[in-house]
User: What shape does this take?
Amino acid sequence: MTSTTEQFADVSATTLLRFATAGSVDDGKSTLVGRLLHDSKSVLTDQMEAVEAVSQARGQEAPDLALLTDGLRAEREQGITIDVAYRYFATARRRFILADTPGHVQYTRNMVTGASTADLAVVLVDARNGVIEQTRRHAAVAALLRVPHVVLAVNKMDLVGYQESVFAAIAEEFTAYASDLGVPEITAIPISALAGDNVVDASANMDWYGGPTVLEHLETVPVSHDLTACPARFPVQYVIRPQSAEHPDYRGYAGQIASGVLRVGEAVTVLPSGRTSTIVGIDALGESVDIAWAPQSVTLRLADDIDISRGDLIAPSASAPATTQDVEATVCHVADQPLAVGARVLIKHTTRTVKAIVKEIPSRLTLDDLSQHPNPGQLVANDIGRVVVRTAEPLALDAYADSRRTGSFLLIDPADGTTLAAGMAGESFASKDRAGDEAAAADEDGWDF
Assistant: This one.
């Protein structure tokens, strides 16, 4: 009998790669992306004409390829990336979804957004400056988000005379740092995005480098994450009850399968209530099917009339996650206002949003040496730290290491809906849990659960 993974190999196998670029200001991210698009012939004629017109208006002799991704007027005027710019392109070997993320420390939150679904992160470093604090921050974010592949693109090699020693020193320092964070695969490539060296075509100026170009690596890196191999998770988005003459008793639970495979006849548990039932029908695109898998959007029908609403999670009884009201996680703080111990927040996990209180902030990560600053009391914008959150209602959380979809959550300001932090449940990094301290619950005024 074939395994689930083998049975759905044709479904889960894909030629699509999602990747994000990151790096400090002026390291050349947008130029690299522009060079990738231009040299892979993924730029439309009218787009190129617009870039040439803007470049000429600025007095530049050659087209500024960075303008292919810096779409906001403020970005073009300042010459920096502010928003996450998404681009879609393809070669004969693979399709790509690219997120060009900001480099300025003020916009680190946008890098979290761009890298949260990425299979690969390209971290740029200016060969003249080497590994700096923002480089470390981007490496830490990539490690926390469990991005499986990281490319170190040492850019502006033309400004350091294409010296192998410069590249080797930067690659060694970054690789040691990222490896200590638990990044599983790191590939270092020396490039000049402006001149096109080792971006799409191999460089004639660096014959000492025998590895792939950036595009060659992007085309060949394995994308092995198989959602159908993970335990099934189905967050309910909407309850369908038409109560019409044609469907007087129809009750269906609509949503997107976050992971795994669901089958008609399978015993399932509804969380957080813990009630059990059996799947008697699966409707997909107006048709009844016997089986469905992530990331399909379907409607489930159950054998029993159970009180189920938006925010509940349906999972196979044999592999249902445990529920908890005590969430221990690592968060990237993205709001301007600090996150302090005792703060009343909302926690949004899949389709479920509940009240919560920050009971403890055991530590804040120091990026220079990866040490933990104990009990900081609060986290400010762009901080990465450990938190302990007590929720008003149980949540069916997986560890983020097991599922990026059902192991992640947002902390939200209940007053105005502002996103405060992006959280990853469980251990901090792939190598080990660096937080070290056990959470100690303490009663607080206000929302005390």
Observations:
- The chain is about 20% helix and 35% strand.
- The longest strand covers residues 352-366.
- Confidence is low (pLDDT under 50) at residues 1-14, 72-82, 432-449.
- The two ends are 48 Å apart (CA to CA).
